[in-house]
């Protein structure tokens, strides 16, 4: 297919996944802070959420997403670096 996914590239892929996911998390946070009222009105209409429920849902979602990034991208990356996965020789 043209993609050469060797085991030496796994740490690099994990690092790029973490960078992209943190970018998405920052985008989510910026949208949440800048367009808070607009999104709240929309969610309030759809789901009947109070302002407090909406805020808890957004911050909780960001927290779960951040924990996912740490557990599934950063921890494996650091572990592979510690054991010297990408060392030559």
| Broad shape | elongated
Low-confidence stretches: none
How much of the sequence lies in strands comes to under 5%
The level of helicity is: over 70%
Rg over C-alpha atoms, rounded to the nearest angstrom = 18 Å
Q: Residue-averaged pLDDT, rounded?
A: 91
Total helical elements: 3
Distance between the termini: 29 Å
| N to C succession of SSEs | HHH
Based on secondary structure, the structural category is mainly alpha
Count of distinct strands: 0
How would you describe this protein?
- Helix content is 78%, strand content 0%.
- The protein is built from three helices and no strands.
- The chain is an all-alpha fold.
- The model has no long low-confidence stretch (mean pLDDT 91).
- The protein starts with 9 loop residues before the first helix and ends in a 7-residue tail after the last helix.
Short description:
With 89 residues, this protein is mainly α. It has a domain at 25-82.
Note the topology.
Layout: H1 10-34, H2 36-47, H3 51-82
Helix pairs in contact: 1-3
List keywords for this structure.
89 residues
């Amino acid at each position: 297919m043209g993609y050469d996914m060797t085991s030496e590239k796994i740490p690099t892929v994990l690092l790029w996944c973490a960078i992209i996911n943190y970018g998405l998390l920052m985008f989510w946070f910026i949208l949440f802070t800048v367009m808070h009222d607009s999104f709240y009105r929309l969610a309030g209409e759809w789901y009947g959420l109070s302002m407090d429920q909406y805020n808890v849902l957004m911050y909780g979602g960001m927290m779960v997403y951040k924990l996912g990034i740490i557990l599934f991208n950063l921890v494996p990356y650091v572990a592979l670096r510690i054991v010297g996965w990408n060392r030559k020789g």
